[in-house]
Amino acid sequence: MLIRNATLADGRRRDVRIEGERIDAVARRLSIAGDEAERNGQGGTRPAGKENEGGTRGGETVVNATGKLLLPGMIDVHVHAREPGFPWKETWESLGKSAAAGGVTTVVDQPNTDPPTINGEAFDAKTDLAERSLVDYGINGGVTTEWNPDELLKRPLFALGEAFLADSTGEMGIDAELFERAVREANDRGIAVTVHAEDASLFDEDARDRDDPDAWSAFRTAEAEVEAIERACAVGDRLGARLHIAHTSTPEGIDRAGEHGMTCEVTPHHLFLSRADLDGLGTYGRMNPPLRRETRRRAVFERVADGTVDVIATDHAPHTRAEKEEGSVWDAPSGVPGVETALPLLLAAARRGELSYERVRDLTATNPASVFDLPRKGRIEAEKHADLVLVDPDAGSEIRGQDLHSKAGWTPFEGFDGVFPEWTMVRGRVVYEPAGIDGDGSEGDSGGERFGEASGENVRQ
Ligand SMILES: [Zn+2]
Questions:
Q1: Which of 88, 212, 389, 391 has a Cα at 20 to 30 A from 74?
Q2: Is the peptide bond before 21 cis (omega within 30 degrees of 0)?
Q3: Terminus-to-terminus CA distance in the chain, angstroms?
Q4: Which domains, from first to last, does the chain contain?
Q5: What is the whole-number distance in angstroms between the Cα of residue 283 and the centre of ligand 1?
Q6: Ligand 1 centroid, distance to 309 Cα (angstroms)
């Protein structure tokens, strides 16, 4: 396939040729068989001024991408696929569709499934399910007192974590000693460690007297995050290990991670939502870490726009409406869906001039690929995987939960502006197109959305 005259994130216009799973060439102008014939006087049917036209020429599919933005697919290093254990919330199949429709070409699953991914058997069972994914995937391994590091760390893990250092929320919290041992074992094997940093001893118990949606934010204090990041980073420093801090929600926490030379990620909800939105969101706005004050949100946004933050990851954590509406904010489960809306929200923000397209590319693709050592992903260059997203940067639309493909069926970004893909490609195969790929000839322009065959692969294999 030849993508003609696409605009890259840095503004350069390039032709991109795809051969099999790879990008074969990126250049100002790439010749095609049809053009050669034309020049030699054998063709002559193509009128002047139509040199970028799509179609099939010389046996090659040509896509006219004039005026369109071509980006490397998003690598979302933090999603909860929910399977095994909670298939009514999400499955690898529904997750893959939601990811593809949002321009995400790689997802990385967290270990808090049922059973949790804490030993070799659980890892292998999850891998069998993950093969139903439309997009490529990574699988993280979890740390609990029950884990089996000898088995688990021999598997092709994406990373260890998210490790919950001394978190009281039950699920997968661990003490300092086990955390240190886990960091040491992973580091010895060259496996990255990601950390969920909230110190439950610093939660504000007084907030328990309230039951309005904002009580959750008052309870899980900003200080609890900042101190937990500091503690985790101190362990990393002592062991000479690099940590990646998951879903940082405070400017102070982002700065601490940076001071220690650690990388960090920010979620779209901490970037675009604040406690001021909780009146409207109600229990749907409960997640960990919680939404912060508007002043903090703005400071987080600044650090995303100026490159201090390394990665945008969604912490896609789908629950059904019924689950989210269960009782007060103290009863509802934590987490919001986000894999399908992250890149569209960022592209809409870029169109408004709030950050550059290059920054969007770096945060969603180039940086996650380098932080987590995925040498074949995250860049539009020869020899890289053809994981690509084509968008019309001027074609914004309103985000609506009912249009999304997650089983959740709702979004905290209802009514927000989003720029969605014209198509998404994973290793050279179009896995999603909402209305037919330009130049795909006969069946392409049917108007209905189309998903490819599930062909996701473990990015560590
Ligand atoms: Zn987390």
A1: 88
A2: no
A3: 26
A4: 2-67 (no CATH), 73-371 (3.20.20.140)
A5: 18
A6: 17
